[in-house]
Write a structure and sequence with these properties.
17 helices, about 10% strand, six-stranded mixed β-sheet, alpha/beta
Amino acid sequence: MTVYAEAVAPSADAPGRPVRKTRPTVRLLRHLLPYWRRLLPAALAAAGSELAAAALMATAAWLITRAAEQPPLAAVSVAIVAVRALALGRGALRYIDRLLGHDGVLRAVAGFRARVYEALVPLAPAGTPAFRSGDLLTRLVDDVDAAQDLLLRVMIPVTAACVVAASATGLTMVLLPEAGLLLGLLLAVAGLLVPALVLVLSHRAGRDEKAARAELAAVTVDLTQGAADLAAYGARGRTHDRARRVTARIAGLERHKALTTSLAQAVVLVLQGAATVGVTWLALRAHAAGDLPAVQLTVLAVLALVSFEALAPLPAAARRFAEVRASAQRLADLFDTPAPVADPTAPDPLPTDEPLDVTIDGLRVRHIQDGPPALDGASLRLPAGHRVVLLGASGSGKSTLIAALMRFVPYEAGSVRVGGRELSHCSGADARRAITGMTQDAHVFHATIRANLLLAAPDATDADLREAACRARILEWIESLPDGWETVLGGDGATVSGGQRQRLLLARALLADPPVLVLDEPTEGLDPDTAAEVLADILDATRGRTTLLVTHERAGLAAADGIVTLDRGRIRPATPEDLDSTADGPVAVAL
């Protein structure tokens, strides 16, 4: 149903688009805040691990220097115990940091990914063409995973660096104030100014790389799934060239990021050396003046050296934060894309009695504002328990009618009543529970036959699966396979014939058992003999069920309770000419 793409493509000035009140990164953090109870201990453990590492080096330096003075063993026993405790504690805290951090982050990302899917539900299928399939996949995988990097590779390292820098500066200030000022200044430059410069230099590169990777994913999908079409139109070479250009652009952006990060880390190393030399010089001068013992001189020199270790990951964290900002922006665009059909504030419940009747009266639908109507005054009555066939040439609006019934596209005029309730007053979820089935974009997944069918009814029993397969006349074929129900199918049914694929989708639609079953072009892509056979099986399997069968096939429809034709946006009773036959066929009543 890609015909709806123009109507819902994201636009900064699109009417009705929600105004973004907060920055995308802040919005991303808000989604992750419910998991702070798991993440806070991880951040504290990370800070404790880095603090223990710095304290271990400073204590060891004090112990070595003090031992050189040959004091009594009791004078250094506490330091000996402290060195052992800090060495063991550092490893334990690092383990706790990794354990709690990854546990909390994976839970947070799983919850956030579910929210992204929830945001996609109102958009599908009419709103998703606003994003190319490869680009949408990049948003669902790479951009959602950026939430993980925001927590693990940005926030936790920054927390640890702040704790270590503040502690080292404070201790140095206590021992030698002027050395503390120098160390604090250089730590601020290394921990604030350098990452800020990296962030500025990486901002555009991160955004461009995300866009390039999304484009590469889209081109890859074109090359893999559209290889036959590209070859038929002689566009395969151009598409390969485009893929190579995008790959080269990504490689260039990666080199830019690596160069920026490497230079920043080199600057941090220079600042570390400058801080060590400067603090040591000030300590030597104070020691020469008799204001600083030799033991404390050593501690200050080592502390200045190790305090920068916690700041080493910050340039990489700043670069990653630039990428996270780009991902957050792309996810915000997805969240802010308006649904093609908005649910009412207080939706009316649809009746649950089966079967339901459907009455369509004067339905008008446009895909583009001020464009020609795809449906213009379409009217039809689908009595409860009846099977009505809707004929029409390709592009006549049959799929549009299905989309309106399933609340995928809005209608600007007319009425659709299901079980006596106006459809526009009901929620989309309720509408799709009552009216669903087999649409043109129905997909067969690379999974077992059982898993593909259970998508329609996860709680279905083996008996339910066998009954649906039997009604779709595919049970015998399934049981003849070596692995039976556990046979793995190729992507979109690539390993089965067209007739088997359509029957499998029909079985899934029958297993869903909705009050109103909709079957949209179930014979598309089949040869005429197979199409007639599948249609006959469908009409037999849906006997006594409220069914709307949309097709452009004319053969095999004698068992239908009614046949109508969609022509120029309106529905009229089918004629013998529509059926390519002189025999009178069943005709449904058009309002």
